[in-house]
Design goal:
mainly alpha, Four Helix Bundle (Hemerythrin (Met), subunit A), Cyclodeamin/CycHdrlase
């Protein structure tokens, strides 16, 4: 029986989990699909020449899966101080200053966690490249699904970076966050599109 706790929590009116947690969860699903492909590749005579490398990919995917699952909770924890800052009073100059300071501190964490999600998903896409060209052809379509999931997670997490970075007063820091997100989307997104096109061409 599928454990739907996370999905039901996501569907509720609670602010967390939200888009960031969903992106991390989607990234974890991508690692799981990649691992399935790897596990169906090792032990097969046809793929014995890439078996050692496939085990390395499986180990890396397992590490990324653990990290992305952690990031589901880390995203919720990063949002908590931001939500608290939004609710702080601002009736006096001192209250406004305290609120502004709390907001700026919280916005940093609210950018760094989704960036970590993006970095992890970028690595998932890179590992899928090996699986697309070397994994079992019987499950090539699953590599394509993994790539789609990882790209969706990458793009989804970027939205949390952008929405929070725009309110950071330190514009150099904010532009650094947004710039890294743009680079990850550009580089890893392009690789994901290439791999998806390859899989589609091979299976149709």
């Amino acid at each position: 029986m599928l454990d739907t706790t996370f999905i039901m929590d996501l569907a509720s009116k609670a602010p967390t989990p939200g888009g960031g947690g969903a992106s991390a969860y989607m990234g974890a699903l991508a690692t799981a699909l990649g691992s399935m492909v790897g596990n169906l590749t090792v032990g097969k005579k046809r793929y014995e020449s890439v078996e050692a490398d496939t085990y390395i990919v499986l180990e890396k995917l397992a590490d990324l899966r653990t990290r992305l699952i952690e990031l589901v909770d880390e995203d919720a924890r990063a949002f908590a101080p931001l939500a608290k800052a939004y609710g702080m009073p601002k009736a006096t100059p001192d209250e406004q200053a305290a609120k502004d300071a709390a907001m700026q501190h919280a916005l940093t964490g609210a950018c760094e966690v989704p960036l970590d999600i993006m970095r992890s998903c970028a690595r998932v896409i890179e590992l899928c490249e090996f699986l697309a060209y070397n994994g079992s052809r019987m499950v090539l379509s699953d590599v394509g699904v993994a790539v789609v999931c990882a790209k969706a997670a990458l793009n989804g997490a970027s939205l949390n970076v952008f929405i929070n970075a725009k309110d950071i007063a330190d514009r150099e820091r904010a532009e650094g966050y947004a710039g890294e997100a743009d680079r990850l989307i550009g580089d890893s997104g392009a690789l994901a599109d290439k791999l998806y096109a390859y899989v589609l061409d091979e299976i149709r």
